[in-house]
Amino acid sequence: MTRRHQTVWRSGLAAALAAWMALALTGCGQKEVTGKLDETAKDAGSAQVRIDGAEIAFKSTILLEVQEQGYDLSTSPDFTQPLSEEDRMDAGGALLPVYMGRDGQVVARLGCANTGNGELPTLEARVKSFEVFYGPCPADVEAPQNAKPRVAIGGVDFTGQDAEEVASLLEEKAGSVTSGEGPSPSQYTVGGCMYTFSFTAGGAVNRVWVQGL
Questions:
Q1: Tens digit of each residue's pLDDT (9 = 90 or more) over 181-206
Q2: Do 200 and 135 contact (CB within 8 A), yes or no?
Q3: Numbers of helices and strands, H then E, in the chain
Q4: Which residues, if any, are the signal sequence (predicted)?
Q5: Alpha-carbon distance 92 to 116, whole Å?
Q6: 3-state helix, strand, coil in the chain (%, to 5)
Q7: Alpha-carbon distance 76 to 138, whole Å?
Q8: Which label site among 17, 127, 131, 137 has the fewest CB atoms less than 10 Å from its CB?
Q9: DSSP run (H or E) holding 28
Q10: From the centroid of its chain, how far is CA 48?
């Protein structure tokens, strides 16, 4: 084989290898389970949410820290009632849902509480739950738009997954499981968190709600 033929043969082999690797990574067009539960979900009892560069850890992250990561916070989904430094919250109180957004679009809905012994600024309330919508926002949100971000909860991105894929990730780790049929919700308790899923009529996840217990 001449040097020129060797070069051509090696180029062809490299191209074939690259194509094979690309096919293997895409799984011939089938959906792949994305990620696995990390230690924040399994052991610490406080699932950590990563969303477009921001991080939220249940029971420790306060609303001010969410705001400082570049997100708008409001008690209304159209962001006409933003939280301010003057807002106060009574001891032991729970806050109405707080909408986390950017550029006027809803990114997530947060549940928050004052876990201290006295009144404190609302922006110091701790995040207790996180709800993300993969499809249109539900009717009770009445938001103009949903940002549809890519979100990892406890190390897992549930985008596009169906009930079977969700079960394969959570069922073995769950202390308790309540599963629905078709578009009905499925619920898993993992560590110190409860995951509730709802699905579209086509079977894909359209909502994930995670609550720190």
A1: 655 678 988 877 888 998 888 888 88
A2: yes
A3: 4, 14
A4: 1-24
A5: 7
A6: 25, 35, 40
A7: 14
A8: 17
A9: none
A10: 9
